[in-house]
Amino acid sequence: MANVKLGNQTFEGVESVKLNTTDGGTATFTLGGGVTGEFVLCGEATEVGESAFYTEKINGIYLPNATNIGNSAFEYNYVLSSINLPNATNIGDDAFHSCDALVNVDIPNATNIGDRAFHSCTSLTSVDLPNATNIGDYAFHSCTSLTSVDLPNATNIGDRAFNGCTSLASVDLPNATSIGESAFYGCANLSSLILRTTESVCQLIVTAALGTKIVTAEGVPTGEGFIYVPAKFYEDYVTLIAYQAAMLLVSQGMGEAEAQATADYIARAILRKIEDYPEICG
Question: pTM of the entire structure?
Answer without folding.
Answer: 0.86
